[in-house]
Structures are given as C-alpha cells and as structure tokens.
C-alpha cells in the first residue's frame, strides 16, 4: 500500500487534500495515487525518468508531483503561464518524455510537446474545468491511469527539477538542492526521511504560491511525509484567511506580496480573524520591506520566520521573528552547511560592517550544480550586495545582477530584451526593475524606435510581446526614448536608466 493508505488506517475521516472544488480523504488520495504511479512505472521515460508538470494549483497537480516521487521519476516543474515555445525549450533541455497538464494548459502543453518531440501528454481536470475537447494528442488522465493494483516501492527516488535563470535570460535546470533532499535507497526509505521534516509537527499546511516554485513545492514533500494539505489557486487574501480559519492551518510559506495583500484586508477583518492554529509562517522569495515585516510580526507574533536563499541551494540564511525585531531588516545568519561572508576587492572576507558582494561557502562541497554541467564550486554568490555584522547577521542592500523580483517571481530582463528586440519597430531595448510598493519591483522597458518619425504604440508592443512571453514578463511600463545610456565600453548603463526613470528625463512614459 502507499503511504496514504497507511495513514488512512490511522486517520480514516481526515481530509488529506483540499482545493477550491474537491476534498479527498487519505484513502481517496491513495485510490488516485496507485493508478498514476503504476502508469508512470510502466511508461518509457528514458534513463533520466523526467516528467514535466505544466498545470495550475489543484489537488490533482499536487498528486501529480507525489506520483512522480513514488514512481522514482523526476518531476520537472514548469511555470503554467509560459508560452508553448518557452515550455518546449524546457522540455528539450530537461529531456522530459512525458507532460502532465490540466484542462487550462492542455493547448500549450500539446504544442510544446509537438515542438520538443515529447510523445505523451496527459491532462487532468483543473478545478471547475472538466475536460470536454482536449487536443487530439492529449489523453485524459482517467484513460491513461487504469491499473489500480499496489505499486512497487523498490525503485530509487529522484530529485525534482526546477528552472531558474541567470543574466543571459536562458532558463537553467537545477535539481532540488541537497539541503532539501532526504535521499533513500528506495521509496520506502525516502518516505521515512520525508516524515522527519520539522514542519510535520505544525499540522495542516496551506499551499498559497504556485506549485512550480521551489517554496510551494515543499507542500508535496510535506504531504508525502503525512501532512494534510490545502491547496489554493490564484492568491486571494480573503480566501487565504478563510482557509486558515476553516482548515485550522498550522503552517504556510509566503512571499512579501502575499504579506502585503493580507495586510491590505480591512483592519476589522484581520483583528477578528482566528489565526490561533498557525504555528509557523515562513517568508521566502525576496527581501521583505521592513514596515511590512514589522506589521506581520505585530499581527501574528513569533511564528513569522524568514528564509533567504535560492532554488539552486535552498535556504542559506534564516531569521526568527525575535531576532528580526532585534535587528530589523536582516535576513538572518547563515545556516549549515553554509557560511556567509562579504567579499572585499580581492575576494577575501571583509571586516564586519563592510558593504560588498555577499558570498557563501558550502562546507558540504556540493555548491550549485546545473543539469547542463555548469557548477559553481564550493563558493558562490546569489548576485547581491550586502553587509554583515560581527555576529554574522546579514542585510541585503542591493543586487549585483539585473534580475527583477516582482511578487516573489523572478523576471530576467535579458530574456525580455531578446524577445522585444526581434520586433521590427524596435531598434534597441533595455529592461530594468524599479521599486514597487505592492509587488516589490516592477519591470520597465526603454525602447528606441526603429523609425523615430513613426514610433510604435507601447501598448501594441506589450500586446505583441504577450504572444512570445508569459504575461508576468511583460514590462509594466514602456518608455520611448531617443537612445539608451551606455558605459564607455558599450555596456548598457542600467543605473543611469533608473535615474532617468526617476526624473522622467527625455523618455515618453506610457504606463500599461
């Protein structure tokens, strides 16, 4: 029997999984998992056994990730907002042999699979959207999973694969970091390891972010470790608070934008909300504005923690609510196996209080390893500038890279520049981030028209970009300008661009 059946024998009436339209007991979850695991075990997935998942948040999506784990497959988490060409690149790069999708992403999944030469696409129903007319190349989940016998467990577990990007804008695949990986010789040992997660003791978990992000993906491991999970769709502050009250949520992982939207609820609603079940709320994704973090701690108390790190390595620094109150704005101290330091001009550790590039040393020897074979070595930077006090507490003060973090989502200006630069009306383009009260940052584009006498409509540029890029990558502001500031060696001077934006300068501002 699967782990879900074992838990069902102990907690037969407990709701194991819930989303906006359905709820499953542990036995019902087991009934869904068995045929999915058997189907994956029987599928020719190649030596890497990679299965891409392109689907919105739901009970079915979470079970898809868990089924991949139980079958010894490596789930490839794909952003459900990507276009078919963007998805096809990930399918090719990861060497996925199968795509799981839902009824809202089936068209994109089918086209991406065709472009990448992936033979099998399987779709389940998205919440409230029943399959009626799937593309011809897509098979329904119910038809694909037919063997509900007990699946074998003597297969080796494999790590989930997520995609992140660097300054080149090309997504890079990286497996779940070893700091989050419990290993095990087979599935039975792997599940036993997952059951030791310290978050298990906090009770029911609430997944509020997209499951294709590394933070929310923790929900899949917690569920496999025996924790009931509530899965929310697109974030809604009222729905989140209602779920916490109704389901007696014990833990959740959120980004600063989630905090801001919760705090934007009417004061009376927050004051009367029953959040007494919450025992652990972890903030990830981006540096949280100090007033926002202060307000969350004032509301919820010492259950608010913050994790600083990246998909490639997991958590590198951690800070509790009390330590944050003692050192406002800090992201905490390095956690094992990492050691943090600020590098001086020679790359050596600088004295406390010095501002400079923030580096980490991985004492385990793993470092960052991408599936392409690129490896960081034991010392690496996440591309940010910071300072550190004598006690080892770190503050983030700026970013070395141009990456924009908007609502906890990474946007890579180089990728957007490459796409917008292919439009015939565009002679030159540069993108950069500016502070945004609600989202943390927003993406801005400066465009030099190919024909200054007949400049393009910025709204038209944005609309055409949506056919080539996921919607969240489209700049929120597009400015037309005569030229782009560059350094003496011809590199784009984005510091000057941000200054120009602040004073409006010669750019024609068009807010979209």
Give me the secondary-structure topology.
Blueprint: H1 3-10, E1 15-18, E2 23-25, H2 26-42, E3 50-54, H3 59-70, E4 74-77, H4 84-94, E5 98-102, H5 106-116, E6 120-124, E7 138-140, H6 141-144, E8 161-165, E9 171-175, H7 187-194, E10 205-207, H8 218-224, E11 229-231, H9 237-247, E12 251-254, H10 256-263, H11 267-272, E13 280-283, H12 290-300, E14 304-310, E15 314-319, H13 321-326, E16 333-334, E17 338-342, E18 356-362, E19 379-388, E20 394-399, E21 404-406, E22 409-411, H14 413-420, E23 426-436, E24 440-449, H15 458-465, E25 477-480, H16 494-503, E26 508-511
Parallel strand pairs: 1-11, 3-4, 3-5, 5-6, 6-7, 10-11, 10-12, 12-13, 13-14, 24-25
Antiparallel strand pairs: 1-2, 8-9, 14-15, 15-16, 17-18, 18-19, 19-20, 21-22, 23-24, 25-26
């Amino acid at each position: 029997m699967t782990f879900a059946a074992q838990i069902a024998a102990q907690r037969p009436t407990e709701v194991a999984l819930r989303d906006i339209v359905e709820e499953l007991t542990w036995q019902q979850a087991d009934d869904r998992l068995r045929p999915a695991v058997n189907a994956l075990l029987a599928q020719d997935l190649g030596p890497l056994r990679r299965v891409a998942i392109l689907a919105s948040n739901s009970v079915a999506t979470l079970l898809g990730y868990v089924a991949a784990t139980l079958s010894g497959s490596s789930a490839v988490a794909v952003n459900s907002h990507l276009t078919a060409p963007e998805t096809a690149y990930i399918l090719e790069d990861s060497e996925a042999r199968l795509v799981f999708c839902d009824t809202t992403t089936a068209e994109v999944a089918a086209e991406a699979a065709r472009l990448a030469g992936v033979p099998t696409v399987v779709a389940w129903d998205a919440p409230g959207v029943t399959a009626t007319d799937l593309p011809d190349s897509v098979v329904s989940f119910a038809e694909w999973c037919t063997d509900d016998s007990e699946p074998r467990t003597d297969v080796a577990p494999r790590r989930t694969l997520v995609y992140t990007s660097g300054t080149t804008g090309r997504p890079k695949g990286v497996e779940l970091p070893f700091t989050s990986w419990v290993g095990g010789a087979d599935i039975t040992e792997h599940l036993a390891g997952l059951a030791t997660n310290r978050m298990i003791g906090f009770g029911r978990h609430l997944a509020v972010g997209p499951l294709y992000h590394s933070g929310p993906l923790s929900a899949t491991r917690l569920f496999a470790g025996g924790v009931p999970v509530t899965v929310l769709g697109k974030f809604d502050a009222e729905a989140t608070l209602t779920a916490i009250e109704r389901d007696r949520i014990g833990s959740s992982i959120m980004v600063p934008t989630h905090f801001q939207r919760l705090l934007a609820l009417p004061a009376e609603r927050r004051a009367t909300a029953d959040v007494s079940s919450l025992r652990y709320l972890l903030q990830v994704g981006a540096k949280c504005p100090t007033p926002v973090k202060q307000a969350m701690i004032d509301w919820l108390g010492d259950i608010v923690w913050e994790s600083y790190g990246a998909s490639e390595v997991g958590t590198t620094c951690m800070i509790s609510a009390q330590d944050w109150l003692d050192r406002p704005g800090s992201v905490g101290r390095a956690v094992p196996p990492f050691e943090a330091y600020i590098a001086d001009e020679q790359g050596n550790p600088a004295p406390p209080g010095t501002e400079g590039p923030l580096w980490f040393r991985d004492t385990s020897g793993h470092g960052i390893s991408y599936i392409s074979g690129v490896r960081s070595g034991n010392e690496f930077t996440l591309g940010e500038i910071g300072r550190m006090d004598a006690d080892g507490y770190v503050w983030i003060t700026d970013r070395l890279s141009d990456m924009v973090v908007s609502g906890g989502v990474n946007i890579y200006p180089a990728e957007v520049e490459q796409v917008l630069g292919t439009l015939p009306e565009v002679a030159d383009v540069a993108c950069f981030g500016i502070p945004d009260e609600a989202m943390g940052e927003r993406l801005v584009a400066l465009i030099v028209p190919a024909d200054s006498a007949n400049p393009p409509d910025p709204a038209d540029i944005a609309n055409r970009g949506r056919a080539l890029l996921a919607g969240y990558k489209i700049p929120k502001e597009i400015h037309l300008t005569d030229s782009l500031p560059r350094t003496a060696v011809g590199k784009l001077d984005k510091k000057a661009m941000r200054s120009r934006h602040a004073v409006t300068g010669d750019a024609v501002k068009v807010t979209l």
